[in-house]
Amino acid sequence: MNDLVRGSGPERQPAWKKLTELAARLARRPVAELLDDQERNQALRIDVAGLSLDFTKQRLNHEALTTLTTLARQQQLPARIEQLFAGAALNTSENRPALHTALRAGPGDAPEHAGRVVAETLARLQRFAADVLAGRRCGSSGRAFTDLVHIGIGGSHLGPELVVDALQARGRGLRCHFVANVDGDVLTRELSGLDPETTLFVVVSKSFATLETRENALAARSWFLERTASTDALAEHFVAVTANVAAAGEFGIAEPMIYPLWDWVGGRFSLWSAVGMPIALAAGPEAFAGLLEGARHMDQHFRHAPLLENAPALLALTGIWNFNFLGAGTLAVLPYASRLRLLPDYLQQLEMESNGKSVQHDGSPVGVHSMGIVWGGEGTNGQHAFHQLLHQGTRSFAADFIVIAHRDHDLEDHHRWLLANALAQSQAMMAGQDSNDAHRRVSGDKATTTIVMERLEPSTLGALLALYEHKVFCQGVIWNINSFDQWGVEVGKRLALPIHAQLAGAQTVNQDASTRYLVEHLRSPDRTGP
């Protein structure tokens, strides 16, 4: 039997009971008081791959920190890390490995079968991007491409959109338009004003059957054919990234324009593959290579650093500490950088789709809470929206602040104010504010981590995203859950099939009273037209 399936819940480990006792004691101790211990502070700071992580505003002392790492060892985390990189079948419900690290591995660092096909695909992608950007690869009329429409959803969309938004250089590369939602307003808006002769379409779907992607791709193809009247032109303007080559061919995409995906890469871990094509076409092949390099640096750190010095492991363990022992129900992701404004959306999927599970590997119930709610928004906008709740609300939370040390613009004082606000917000969450007026009192003692990126560039962004990927993996190991499947996503998709037919006129049989009423209400005659 797979030793993953034999694993047990963390609450059965000796370290769990000790952590419960430590949390009860530390809960009565102000975080500000813990900062008096300089040795403790030094142990809670890690520099790696252009990132500086500061955990000193977490409610942790040395004993709690070492006990958390003891829990990680009792849950076999070091062994699981090696299994991750070696290609063991860590996705137990689908009997597959999770080899996203192979997508950015150095020579000889990935299992041979994965390393070979990844290298071939990456070389193809880099050549294609270079040819498009140099004007050597053009549309069917011979005109250079100016725009890219990326059609995907979930893991086929969130990562590439985040990275393009963060890295796309002004005036360089293709203009990218991302279409995910099946809401027709999205595709209509993104296609508006585009010239079909200079537009490249990239359709990303592992199965090439995902409903939203299929509908958007079919509509985009119709839009293109209506304006070009040439089915032959499809071969020059449509690219597919998929594991289903046959379905992409039936759609009309030429085989040389089909890039592979593999069943050992989950969608939310796939931006390092050809799924990241928009990154290479918007920011350039060198930027895409830099992204992979930064992730590879974080991979090596994660694989070899001791747990007490391991940035992803400590990020994961502070989350376990906050969620399972200190009562936090949510994680606020607060990037103080407009170019990272999509990071909370990306991390929502990465963390909640991976670890939003209620059963262990063997199918038995998880005996403790697993992943909390991930949310957030960019600073300083959030300070004028939801920070009131963070400072004076009654809900418990933890927060990650992400800041960039060096600016990429000429407005020095703007950047100074941005940094000042980030530091002040984390300070206020820790220290609070005493007042004789209850309305002005702020309790403080909120747990926060601050991650400083030296610069927002491809390598540091790659390291940041790999940091969170490995954090998610560590937490799944400790909770003894499978971080690499997402069966809950399928339920609603299945139920949508008969409802779609009923909205088109089929009988509303076998529906509950509420759904039947809503279907009949929405398909009434005055709502059937545009």
What would you say about this model in short?
The protein has 530 residues and is of the alpha/beta class.
Helical element count?
21
Estimated helix fraction: 40-55%
Structural class: alpha/beta
State mean pLDDT (0 to 100 scale). 95
Number of strands: 11
Shape: globular
Note the main sheet: 6 strands, mixed
Query: Termini, distance in Å?
Result: 57 Å
Strand order of the largest sheet: 1-2-11-10-8-9
Rg (C-alpha, Å): 24 Å
Strand percentage lies at 5-15%
Low-confidence stretches: none
Characteristics of this structure?
47% helix; single chain; 5-stranded parallel beta sheet; 11% strand; 530 residues; 21 helices; alpha/beta; 6-stranded mixed beta sheet
Describe, in plain words, how this protein is organized in 3D.
There is one protein chain. The chain has 530 residues and is α/β, with parallel strands linked by helices. The chain contains 21 helices and eleven strands. β3, α8 (158-167) and β4 form a beta-alpha-beta unit. The strands form two sheets. Strands 1-2-11-10-8-9 form a six-stranded mixed beta sheet, sandwiched between helices. The longest helix has 23 residues, at 112-134.
